[in-house]
Design brief:
Blueprint lengths: L9 H10 L4 H8 L3 H10 L7 H12 L13 H7 L5 H17 L9 H11 L13 H11 L22 H11 L12 E5 L12 E5 H6 L4 H15 L3 H4 L1 H7 L4
Antiparallel strand pairs: 1-2
The protein binds zinc ion (ZN).
The site of zinc ion has 8 residues, from strand 2 and helix 10.
Length: about 260
């Protein structure tokens, strides 16, 4: 039986978490909310969470011996081979937790909210401060993060291509014409945000108009990760839009100064 609203009660949260030793998942199941919601509310109420060492002490009696759901069972060879692969442990644990939560909660009625419940929730939450409301990261911390994550230490470091110069053919006039040709972000289609010009093959020296696309600032940010994916994606966009009047506009192409 679920008890709605309990996850908002600091007393209840403190008692269940610290006195009774329940996990966020178990508490979430008790009141029918996602474990992340429980964690968020605990942070919001100023209730500290367990350190890894404390968590281990709580978890060991719960999951060892006959209490372990796997007690007396054995993994198959196939599962063992899967388990020996390296993987991202934290993410996997969170995914497992999510699956357990869903398998329990989807069966209960509370998951399927009526319109009235939704309206009540909106009323209750409107104007409620979020975790970052009124908070900023101090400049000193920002500098520290930047020192740890920028340049060579970045996961997207590709040998320092951003320090390489652009060729003389890369002019603001060329960029203006590309923006004029495309007229919108070629990934999301927006015209609201400022448009930048993207090199499909990530080669700064290739200023062939067929290699350039107008992208909004948000989508342009996306294209810096997963480069192979975005290269294929943008090539597909070009293939699809090649036959449109703007791409075929001879005058525009002459203005740009390059044809295939
Ligand atoms: Zn966009």
């Amino acid at each position: 039986m679920t008890k709605p609203g309990l996850h908002r009660d600091p007393e209840w949260l403190r008692r269940k978490y610290w006195d009774e030793g329940l996990s966020a998942l178990e508490m979430g199941v008790l009141c029918g909310v996602h474990p992340d919601t429980v964690r968020w509310n605990m942070r919001y109420c100023g209730i500290p969470s367990r350190t890894l060492a404390e968590a281990a002490i709580v978890a060991i009696p719960k999951h060892t011996g006959k209490n372990n759901h796997f007690y007396g069972k054995k993994h198959t060879e196939h599962t063992k081979s899967l388990m020996s692969r390296p993987r991202k442990v934290k993410r996997k644990n969170l995914m497992i937790e999510d699956r357990i939560f869903r398998s329990i909660i989807f069966k209960s009625k509370r998951w399927h909210m009526t319109d009235e419940t939704k309206r009540k929730l909106i009323d209750a939450n409107t104007g409620r401060p979020g975790y970052w409301t009124g908070k900023t990261i101090p400049q000193k911390t920002r500098d520290k993060i930047a020192a740890k994550m920028s340049g060579r230490k970045s996961s997207t470091w590709n040998g320092g291509s951003s320090y390489l110069p652009y060729p003389p053919s890369w002019t603001s006039e060329l960029k203006r014409l590309i923006r004029k040709r495309d007229g919108r972000c070629m990934i999301c289609g927006t015209t609201e945000r400022r448009l930048g010009v993207h090199h499909i093959d990530y080669d700064k020296n290739n200023t062939n108009p067929q290699n350039l696309l107008a992208l909004c600032s948000v989508c342009h940010g996306w294209t810096n990760h997963n480069r192979n994916y975005w290269r294929c994606f943008c090539e597909k966009v070009v293939r699809q839009t090649k036959s449109t009047p703007a791409f075929q506009d001879d005058r525009l192409l002459r203005e740009i100064g390059g044809t295939e």
